[in-house]
Amino acid sequence: MSEIALPKVDKTIVSKKDLIVNNLKQFTDKKNVLSELDEIRPYETDALAAYKNLPLAVVLPENTQEVSEILKFCHKENIKVIPRGAGTGLSGGALPLNDAILLGLGKFNKILDIDFDNKCVVTQPGVTNLSITHAVKHKGYYYAPDPSSQLACSIGGNVAENSGGVHSLKYGTTTNNILGVEMVMMDGTICRIGGKTLDQEGYDLLGLICGSEGLLGVITEVTVKILKNPQTVKAALIGFPTIEDGGNCVTDIISNGITPAGMEIMDKALIDATEKFVHAGYPMDAEVLMIVELDGTKSEVEELFKQIKQIAEKNKSNSFKLSKNEKERLGFWSGRKAAFPACGAMAPDYYCMDGTIPRGKLSEILKEISRLSKKYNLGVANGFHAGDGNLHPLILFDGSNKEELRRTEEFGAEILKACVRMGGALSGEHGIGIEKRELMCEAFNDNDIQQQINIKMSLDEKNLLNPGKVYPILRKCAEEGRVHVHRGEEKFPDLPRF
Amino acid sequence: MFTEEKKNSQIFQDSNHLSPTNELEVSELIKEAYKKKLPIDIHGSNSKKFIGYNVQAAKSLDLSSLSGVIEYLPEELYIKVKPGTLIKDIENILEKNNQELSFEPTDFGYLNDGKSNKGTAGGCVSCNFAGSRRFKVGSVRDFILGFRGVNGKGDIIKSGGTVVKNVTGYDLSKLVSGSFGTLVALTEVTLKISAKKPSQNTIIIYEKDPKTISDLFNMVLSSSNEISGAVFVPDEPKSKKFTPNKSKAFKLNDLDQEGAFFAIRIEGDQNSIKERIKDISNEMSLKKYKTSNLDIYQSDLFWKSINSLQLFSETKNNLLRAVVPPSKSEKMINFLKNKYRYFIDWSGSLFWIEVPGDENIKELKNIIIQNDGYVTIIKKSEDFEFNEKLFTVDDIKLMISKKIKESFDPRGLFNPGKMYKDF
Description:
In chain A, about 60% of the residues are buried. Chain A has four domains: about 10-105, Uridine Diphospho-n-acetylenolpyruvylglucosamine Reductase, domain 2, CATH 3.30.43.10; about 110-230, Uridine Diphospho-n-acetylenolpyruvylglucosamine Reductase, domain 3; about 230-335, Alpha-Beta Plaits, CATH 3.30.70; about 340-485, 2-Layer Sandwich (Alpha-Beta Plaits). In chain A, helix 9 (about 245-255) crosses helix 11 (about 300-315), helix 9 runs antiparallel to helix 14 (about 360-375) and helix 14 runs antiparallel to helix 15 (about 400-420). Chain A is globular and about 70 Å long. Chain A is about 35% helix and about 20% strand. Chain A is an alpha+beta fold. In chain A, the strands form four sheets. In chain A, strands 12, 13, 14, 15, 16, 17, 18, 19 and 20 form a nine-stranded antiparallel beta sheet that branches. Chain A has a five-stranded antiparallel beta sheet with strand order 5-6-10-8-9. Chain A has helices spanning about 10-15, 15-25, 35-40, 65-75, 130-135, 155-160, 170, 205-210, 245-255, 270-280, 300-315, 325-335, 340-345, 360-375, 400-420, 440-445, 445-460; strands spanning about 35, 55-60, 80-85, 100-105, 110-115, 120-125, 140, 180-185, 190-195, 220-225, 225-230, 230-240, 260-265, 290-295, 320, 350, 355, 380-385, 390-395, 485. Chain B is an alpha+beta fold. Chain B has two domains: about 65-195, Uridine Diphospho-n-acetylenolpyruvylglucosamine Reductase, domain 3 (2-Layer Sandwich); about 200-380, FAD-linked oxidases, C-terminal domain (Vanillyl-alcohol Oxidase, Chain A, domain 3, 3-Layer(aba) Sandwich), CATH 3.40.462.10. Helix content of chain B is about 30%, strand content about 20%. Chain B is built from 14 helices and 18 strands. In chain B, strand 4 (about 70-75) and strand 5 (about 80) form a beta hairpin. The longest helix of chain B is centred in the N-terminal third of the chain and has 14 residues, at about 25-35. Chain B is globular and about 75 Å long. Chain B starts with a helix and ends in a 15-residue tail after the last helix. Classes of the chains: A alpha+beta, B alpha+beta.
């Protein structure tokens, strides 16, 4: 499975490695250019660790001008460039190429301006998502998108992948929470898009860049919106006897005009796995467990939980527990957040999938996954950001068994195809990268893909920036791999993934 | 198919006003235009036609006949419509399920003839003008989940879908919003919808000191009380160049017509509203000011008036729409003084400014740009100097925009010159 078609290696570039490395040293401090095997090895993969590939060299510029000069040089010399933030991406978006420079933004790690008057923070792209909230929390503010890797993932990477999190239903994803970026195009042009104002005039280039997976430009600065902490936050744990009941409850909550801050669903396999792992106090008699979080004013939260309790009872819930305090609320989340390591303890390997479906198809997709589980004779545990229809099935398998590995790949691809069939999408928050590249034709036809490629080529006419990602190389629906974790050797094992 | 193509080719040849009724027709008519290199003026109901430069085109592609709801799933919080569907009709359908388009599409009808006209879904998406909730919920572009349309070569393309979380390729829905029909002829749009809050209330604060107004805006943005609208309406200028409108636009029993006022909207269930009004009164020290309160009915009318620009009803002057960072509102108020008629929305960010037709707008534009903002000339007076740029854009962004335009519409046929003179 770690075999994947990559753009053809330009041997002329590889043969000029020493010259290129020396040239790069003109644009930034010598210590920022890495070319020895032991120096570049750590950059051979991102969090999709099944795929590894060494870059020609790694360069770690320190300011925008350096990025511009490096890109201008690479553009002139036809050298491919792979941008990389913290390398926590799960779809292989930062996988290096042998004839490409890996451009690491790790040294862009400063917050530049905390502007409480305009409720925004201007930051360099290498700053972690959580650091932004830490920088403003003393005044009661936070940055809303909260991907599970927020402790380590960089804000530049969040822009590239349009990262979401458990609170996207109410607060949106990265694209809804940024005001501006500074970006360097492949030819070295520095441009500023947006700023501290809401919206921008003309074409929404900010919207285009967000989620473009590093194919259109290198982000060198981001301005994010910050929000005031809600007055009250509470969560409830609700158990259901069947998948249908849990799925119907999700739909009914939304139909009743309630927009929870977060709404998660776990199936029996995941409840059992996480309960064994962290003892979160989940009801063991539930086939499906829902975590609902509401925020707002005290009376509003109380009133809405009363309504949710009634809706849950109507849908045959067999348990309902409301958090009494902050500690208990966090306890409710602890199991959900331990889903990945808990699965790691259940089987030698697991694949994490990431697709979306319309909320109303929840029980349908769960049944389909259950059917496929039997068909492929492989265990699966399901966690969903149910509020926004984003599902993360975790397929359990043994990677040392090649035949089982093949079945796992087929199983995973069938789940994503089912998502698209049900009106959903191939990726909710992990991006396409190399992982789902060849599945793009499940969701889009040639015209759709060609239009996207035309945009890419209009801004990067030589196709030098992060080539081989997002758009199918093979132009056939090959069944590629997903996040493969072997014997718990996940990249960034400390990060909660949910 | 061959006969269809022939038929559409004939229609294209015979008529300058093309009014397709399905996506395939749109595609084939555009393919004809592409073959013959003929520019097309793409539009819906023309409710916002005065925005931008006049389009010089041989053919007009009227998408208003391509209308109707394709799919409405209240529980999935989306509605999929054809581009010619009237926003008014969409809102009526949503209302039946206590749902709404929470971005509050701006109603430009009053500017024209003193009557409401929110235009079509396609026009709303293409222009990206959101109302008073913008600072809380987002703009039109944040509510477009996906679209189908035809590019400048006649190819049918799609992007996005019906789900909120979707990272599959470039988010073209964002790009299409605010593109004024220069990239794609829309054939289908999917809009995210929201539950309508059961009640609302508006607090009116009678105040006009620029520093105080700026502080009040800041307090709104710093509040955790989920305030969903904050505007400042100053005194009307005495100059005869403005037809007095304020008392008509805000004719409400509990709103004192004399002088300037600041208004904030609170939405939710009644208990929550009460609780929040109490809290807001404390955090904003409202006892210091003369205030009044608009109940649900008056509040609803008030924000409708704001979001339909009734203050500028049937104006013959220039109307500018400026957006600045909220911290710049005080400087802007000090500059605008009583010289122009204006009001401020989006809690200190959005300025709607009416400038007499015979006045030069250059200085005002410069002030807005110096304050890190941007400005769009929405309505032009008869005396308007047409060499004036209508949209703010820097050279690099213009260069990028031009390349993107070419990637969708390589022959530059869609609404040429609508936004920028170059393309």
